């Protein structure tokens, strides 16, 4: 019997080896790499991965494909010195892999590892194709993600629902947002902006989502699909005779209406929605719903009844399903969730690193009872608007996670999550967060960071390590109580004023670090750059860190411009403003060396999705508007949305931000000369760029290392 049992186990292991999606992942990383590993999936009630050795092959063992992939990533980083990230998902593995001399095992009680904010899908993923999505899903698996938001193609569901409710194509076009703005439509913030979408768009996105979900499910990743929370078009009362409440405006955009749960058709429309969702994408075990996101009025709404109706509709579709809600500002309202059963809801504490709502009394968004009986996930938001910049609370993110685990609220803490508004930036912070579940105890930030640099660059270098430690104690050491929304914004991207500071309306920026520390760290990276020529990860980080240093120099130079104007010193004003403009052009040249920092990459992705010139132009307009004015004049200026998603990128620096600053300096020069001059209408000079279709290269320009060295020397000296 024992022999038979062992043979059965062997058979199971062999089958797992042959069919494992991790084998296919290895082939995408490096063709032929799968032959160098043994992949073993074994049953276990505990989430774990193990690294082991059998003969000349490395064994990656775990209880499901995602955990096995996480183990593979751990091996690649800490044994092979290979770090796969957004800037590079392929590598050349050594002919003979470093041996695992002693079995290494990692377990986690953290059941859920969540990924994405609705905003991520617009600020980063709006124009992704399957090739880019395949890389992202691989990245998710390697980082242990098993619960991602999956909202691609939800517009196709809504199109079908509205058709069946009697809406014509033109009416649907007025409701469903365009490619660059679907996040805020699905969060019940606005209707129609960025559209109308073509029939081809819907077909394309439906096919893409089906492919995304197929791959996720192959890994055992549980997708979180958008559920039905009561959203209907603003004219649903007139069109369908529904009882609705008016949530009001969002940044001067009209919000969709909210279908009252007492309306006899609530469950009919919810059932129709889930039927159409199931038809296209199958049933999910998790649904995301945030009916009163970001300040929507709840006047006239019975919140308790709303919560119960939303839950009932979801459970009718799938009795096993769990409601996933974003804790942001007052959402989810306590009255809406307090009478829902434990286990039926997971709350994402969206901004845990700065404004936790899980029950920390030090928080400005303190909830005394946390999320009550409901499970919750510790999340890091980090990035707002997809803005470019070094930023983080490195030590604090570590400490707060273990503090939450050890608190009375730790009993309902069931996961960690990345809820960034934009990704493809700050890889160090996301790497740190995704390791938390696999480290049972608090760990030293500096020791972790030293190991990270070796993994990231494939070798140890004391100068590089010291540079990163310096950054971790300055720009990556944002104070605990600081609530600023993401990066310390680059003044180059600010709409000029007499005293420019923050770029976006809600940034809440504060000076919390010495800019000279960033410049010193950049100098250290530049000093050893010749040793890392051709190292993809190093060159990406080098450009990013030097970019930050130049932005710091820009802010210091702008202060001189201000002082010169205040003193009426024309010569100093001319010299300082010219130096500032030169910095913008040098920044533009620096960023041209990497495709990740080029507006041309963003625009090329947008245009590539179009089948006709009209489609291509619409998608490009979506891409350009989102990162500049964001909306029309009213939304941009009165609603405060302009520059919210600003990007310090090659191309836009030279053609948009430089233009704004040159216009401002010319204006101020006329004032210094005593000439009467009309105030600048910035929106009028910004909007034309959004309507252009002039080409931008998406290919790297210039040899990265020499270009960085030359530009750094010009700005900062040898």
CATH level-1 class of the domain at 153-319: Alpha Beta
Report the portion of residues in β strands.
5-15%
What is the spatial order of strands in the main beta sheet?
6-5-17-16-15-14-13-7
List the quaternary state of the chains.
single chain
Mean pLDDT: 96
Strand tally: 17
Largest sheet: 8 strands, parallel
Number of helices: 26
Task: Assign the CATH topology of the domain at 153-319.
Answer: TIM Barrel
Low-confidence stretches: 1-16
**DSSP helix fraction:** 40-55%
- CATH architecture label of the domain at 153-319: Alpha-Beta Barrel
What is the CATH superfamily of the domain at 153-319?
A: Glycosidases
Distance between the termini: 75 Å
Rg calculated over all Cα atoms = 26 Å
Cα shape? globular
Structural category is: alpha/beta
Which helices and strands occur, and which strands form pairs?
Elements: H1 2-19, H2 21-29, E1 37-41, E2 47-54, E3 57-62, H3 65-78, E4 104-108, E5 112-115, H4 118-123, H5 130-142, E6 147-148, H6 154-164, H7 169-175, H8 182-186, H9 199-219, E7 224-226, E8 231-232, H10 236-240, E9 244-245, E10 249-250, E11 253-254, E12 257-259, H11 266-281, E13 286-288, H12 303-317, E14 322-327, H13 334-337, E15 345-349, E16 375-380, H14 394-406, E17 413-418, H15 427-435, H16 445-457, H17 462-472, H18 515-527, H19 536-567, H20 570-591, H21 599-608, H22 613-626, H23 633-638, H24 652-672, H25 682-691, H26 704-716
